[in-house]
Amino acid sequence: MRKLFVIGLICVLPSFVLASGSDLHLRHASVDLSDQASLQRGAKYFVNYCLSCHSAEFMRYQRMADDLNISEEDVLNNLMFASNKIGDTMSIAMTGKDADNWFGTTPPDLSVIARSRGEDWLYTYLHSFYIDESRPSGVNNLVFPDVGMPHVLWELQGSQKAVFKTVDDEHGGQKEVFDHFEAVESGEMTAKEYDQAVTDLVNFMVYMGEPAKLVRYELGIKVLVFLAVFFVIAVMLKKEYWKDIH
Length: 246
Fold this sequence. Notes:
Elements: H1 2-20, H2 36-49, E1 56-60, H3 61-67, H4 72-79, E2 89-90, H5 96-103, H6 113-117, H7 119-125, E3 129-131, E4 139-141, H8 154-157, E5 158-168, E6 174-186, H9 191-209, H10 212-242
Helix pairs in contact: 2-9
């Protein structure tokens, strides 16, 4: 029993660490796995901005092509940069040793990042990079303070600075809390366009974390239609069987 308690504590500990890591309110991500165009755009953003450092070893290009209705030719020509076989997983050329030398740590695999962190966390994280000259990459993040990852989407979003304000804390002292962002340099996208791009990217990572969801959603609709039809038949049979009694 004691061993089970320790194992359970270890399993839930990361959620407490995540919850206590930042007081920032998470923004809601409007994820829609039925939006195939969004998933296709998200796949494009993922392979162009994430896959150079982060792998997705549990996702195969072939599965992605089939699920998202992308032709094998388009996948081979536009979405595969580290492999030449459609059946390969989404791996990267950078080794763990090189990553440790260059970044000080190995970038995590992103196959199930949406399941471990949550879609709202990812959506807010990709909106929360700000200029911080004290950091090696020149940026910091409100959701993940002192993160080693640079802001890979800065060309799309532009750069911004975080404005903090001083408030009284519960112990009678004062502390600095985040107030708002101020734009410093415009990016290639407007704020609305960047929101959509991040939504598409998060949507794809949610799909990637559990591709079977698409199958379940499709099957679920068929089951509901069957139950609706069967309900009508059942009501008609009930009336037929009981008409002489009533």
